[in-house]
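To the team - S-adenosylmethionine complex, inputs and output below.
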Amino acid sequence: MSDNTTHFGFQKVNESEKARKVAEVFDSVASRYDLMNDLMSAGLHRLWKAFTIAQSGVREGSRVLDIAGGTGDLSLAFAKKVGKSGQVVLTDINNAMLSRGRDRLLDKGYPVPATQCNAEFIPFKDDTFDCVTVAFGLRNMTHKDHALAEMRRVLKPGGRLLVLEFSHVWKPLAPLYDFYSFNVIPKVGQLVTQDAASYQYLAESIRMHPDQETLKGIMESVGLEKVEYFNLSLGIVALHRGYKF
Ligand code: SAM
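Output:
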């Protein structure tokens, strides 16, 4: 958007306000976040994440950075793959989400380092990681291009970035999907978290997120190469993958 405004769902807000409003959403939902993911997606988010891991090329010894990692689903799966010779770093801008993720991994026997940071300013050196992932986080970021450029910067040459995000659904399914998103999800959010507004934001932010081709173009514009995407569940979600050479 031009001037200093951006979108927070369907609202136009000042850029400086967006991060605070996003923080309020995740502070509010953190304790029920995992349950809500299973309820809203009927467990499908587990398959989308499993597909992401399968496309990651991560293996024993890899160094992986999980951006906006929240409660740590991807970090946990990667920690199991990289073994003692590799490393996974869980990051998130939100302390409530990050603490849950860190504690959950610790409870399962994977004490991965957890770093609170904004994806637009990643506190790691250039050329550090074999793989960087961001699952359902990019949509919430104010300057998506800055964040993607930062993710590319910390990749080693030959490394890959995986972006798992809600996307633009196959057109014939759109009316049903809209009904579900705007009528069912906020009600479930109200029942489970007493917070319908955060789940209304979820539905709105998905509609405002760039479609598959646009996001591919943004990734290319920050220097990622061989960018491709996979539509999952008829485009409800897309996994984009790009490389740094
Ligand atoms: N990756 C996890 C998953 O797939 O279950 C959590 C996704 S959750 C929907 C989105 C996460 O993005 C939240 O934990 C939120 O705090 C984080 N986030 C939002 N804006 C961010 C930013 N600018 N930098 C880093 N994390 C951010």
